[in-house]
Amino acid sequence: MVAAGKGILAADESHKTCQKRFDSVGIEFTEENRRKYRQTLITAEGLEEFISGIILFDETLRQKADDGTSFVDILNKKNILPGIKVDAGAKPLALHEGEKVTEGLDGLRERLIEYKELGAQFAKWRSVITIGKDIPSQACLEANVHGQARYAALCQEAGIVPIVEPEVLINGEHSIERCYEITTLTLKMLYQQLKVQGVYLPGTVLKASMVIAGKESPEQSSVQDVAEMTVKCLRESVPSEVPGIVFLSGGQGDIQATENLNMMNKLHDDLPWNLSFSYGRALQAPALKLWSEGKSDEAAQALVHRAKMNGLATLGKYGSELENE
Asked: What is the b/e burial string over 112-138, where b = at least 16 CB atoms within 10 angstroms of the residue's CB?
């Protein structure tokens, strides 16, 4: 999952998120269009050179290509691991305005058994942490890391590798220093709770947000600052037994997410974990635009190109001049 030069494609958008993206490019939001679009992603020629796994939505895990071959079988033939999003989304946290807790633990054991039978080899659970006035609260952090740990334990019980994803949102006016403070605290609490629940850390992957200033901050972060502050945060909070860390793009631009990842790997070659990517929009945006114009082949090529650029970034070998090759 965290092999050198490769990353994970997040194609697990909920119906709500997927509809927003389809609406943005004028695509009718139907099950068949969702199937056809994700078929374009999954069958893209050469994708396996740079992508080790794809996180799927429940609907996609069950779907088939035009020729009747299941998406899972196609991925297995390409040596790409099929994964599955298993949380039920972030909902308002009771008595804590502006904060959310991820739901979906009820019935998860049974769902994981089914997903394993359908071919899923890893799973993902996303929590969201908002930085704002007097938040995040202790209650919010504790509720979310506890949910992450219980989910991870259930995954390992079912023989599925858990990706734990406590996303610190980029929305807001906060500084990079404030993001560093909250991200470090969140990760320390997460790993404390994972150990309490008996989770085997070498059998997990962390999906982390980069340490970066909020989108509305008057002082935006440089590539160098993001790389240095993120690695400093990880060194302080992530145990060395964790085999790999994949970053979410979290609202960053396509190129921005690639440049930040590249700088981390370029500056630091002595880290105990592989630093890679698990991008959704930052990999898919160019492909979705082309697909909406009826250019399926070009869409597949655009996806593979972005995957290749990020694959190079995992090795610290990306350069903007490569974008036009």
From this structure: beebbeebbbbbbbbbbbbbeeebbee
**Which DSSP symbol is given to 220?**
P
Indicate whether 2 belongs to any domain: no
**Pairwise CA distance, residues 316 & 220, whole Å:** 23
| DSSP one-letter string for 230-271 | HHHHHHHHS-TT--EEEE--TT--HHHHHHHHHHHHHH----
Residue 261 maps to a domain: yes
Q: Is 14 inside any structural domain?
A: yes
Other C-beta atoms closer than 10 Å to the C-beta of 21 total 18
Structure token pair of residue 263:
């700088």
**Is residue 142 annotated as part of the catalytic site, yes or no?**
no
Catalytic position from the list 78, 85, 207, 308:
207
- Of the residues 165, 167, 259, 308, only one is catalytic, namely 165
257 CB-near residues (< 8 Å, 6+ apart): 247, 249, 277, 279, 282, 310
Q: CA dihedral in degrees (220, 275, 262, 314; nearest 10)?
A: -150
Q: Which range is least confidently modeled, 81-90, 161-170, 202-211, 248-257?
A: 248-257
- Give the tens place of pLDDT for each residue, 251-284: 898 999 999 999 999 999 899 999 999 999 999 9
Average confidence score pLDDT of the chain: 97
pLDDT recorded at residue 229: 98
CATH number of the domain encompassing residue 133 = 3.20.20.70
DSSP lists the bridge partners of residue 11 as: 56
State yes or no: is 165 an active-site residue.
yes
Domain count, the chain: 1
- Which has the closest alpha carbon to 191: 240, 128, 249, 119? 240
Q: Are 213 and 219 in contact (CB under 8 A)?
A: yes
pTM recorded for the entire structure = 0.96
Asked if 314 and 5 count as a contact pair (C-beta separation under 8 A), the reply is yes
What is the distance between the alpha carbons of residues 310 and 268, in angstroms, rounded to a whole number? 16
In 3D space, the residue among 128, 236, 225 whose CA is nearest the CA of residue 176 turns out to be 225
Show the domain range for 290.
Answer: 7-324
